[in-house]
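Appendix B, example 12.
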Amino acid sequence: MDKKILNDYIDACAVIRETEAEIRKLGKKKKLVQDKVTGSNPEWPYEPRSFSLGGTVETVADANRLNFEKHILEMQKEDAEALKAQVEEWMKGIPFRMQRIIRYKYFHRLSWEEVATLMKSKQGGEAIRLEFYRFMRKK
């Protein structure tokens, strides 16, 4: 695991959220129409009735285009979820202290000094940064 993948994790989480929103937007692109018609029973006694009809107005080409766009978005989301799962699996196998450092620095985007404060480190941000880099070189 390297720092680039940790940075990509944040972007992958954002891509998942944004892609889900885009997929919902695609569903709203379909035009819904409703209409009322009048008619009567087909059998005796013939009495007038009102019927409500509803549906979507789209051509086959529009439906195919929307399905293609949705498929592309779902593939992007799957890729982002795979990277996210890979990082989360890796995080389970490292020491808890390093998990906290990585969460604060990469997931919460804090400075090294802020990480040191949250970790209650007396040495400061530079010591935390060096600890992180030494750990990453070993991995």
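The helical segments are 3-28, 60-92, 96-107, 112-118, 125-138. Residues 60-92 form the longest helix (33 residues).
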